[in-house]
Amino acid sequence: MLNSVILTAGSVVVVLVLASLAAWGFAQREFRGRDTLLAVLVSLMVVPPVVLLLPLFGMGSDLNLVGTYEYVILIYVGFMLPFSVYMLTNFFRTIPKPLIEAAIMDGAGEFRVFKGVVLPLSAAPLITLAVVNALWVWNELLIALVFLNDDTHRTLMIGITGFQSRNNLDIPTIMAGLSLASLPIVALYLFGQRFFVRGLVAGAIKGGE
């Protein structure tokens, strides 16, 4: 369970930081190829993880990173980043420009505007992304099973899977493990539910336009 917490928290924090910075650039900066680059990034959402397992494992073996938290977190971030950037970009485009211009006129730099104005207004989509991404990482099995080959690094889902085999099915133990695995996610959803629908709608309205 501790391994699952480390991977989930690390992946979600990294992806929120990277996605928010990248989305702010896509939403506010004008540069050649911006829309094309964003479209390519969004298209990566349709790539299934199983397609990339072999090249990722080969690269991890060459770098001696297979079996480490850092490499698995990096893989998770790579898969979560396209959707996160897309959603936050759509939301950042809805922030009124006069509000940003007023902060700049008051002497705030670009990073200060982002930190002091944009992020406080983005609580709903950020919490929504945190909940969605945490749900995916917490329940993910394939990547963790392939890249965490040391028992001391295996996640809760791998541990629960180990309680069942072709000739043995320990139902009470499996149900206890699933109940334990569900508690943190239920608590996280209860914490973020009031932001959840608002965050999804905020990112979808501008994208639909």
Task: Tell me what the structure shows.
Mean pLDDT is about 85; it is low at about 200-209. The chain has a single domain, classed as Orthogonal Bundle (MetI-like fold). The protein is an all-alpha fold. It has helices at about 1-30, 35-45, 50-60, 70-90, 95-105, 110-120, 125-140, 140-145, 155-160, 170-209. Helix 2 packs across helix 4 (about 70-90) and helix 5 packs across helix 6. It is globular.
- Cα shape: globular
Q: How many discrete structural domains?
A: 1
Which runs of at least 5 residues are low in confidence (pLDDT < 50)?
201-209
Question: Major sheet, described briefly?
Answer: none
Name of the CATH class: Mainly Alpha
What is the CA-atom radius of gyration, in angstroms?
20 Å
Can you give the mean pLDDT? 83
The CATH architecture term is Orthogonal Bundle
**Class from helix and strand fractions:** mainly alpha
Order of helices and strands: HHHHHHHHHH
Count of separate DSSP helical elements: 10
Classify the helix fraction into a percent range: over 70%
What is the number of E strands?
Answer: 0
Report the portion of residues in β strands. Answer: under 5%
Going by CATH, what is the homologous superfamily?
Answer: MetI-like
The name of the CATH topology is: MetI-like fold
Distance between the termini: 42 Å
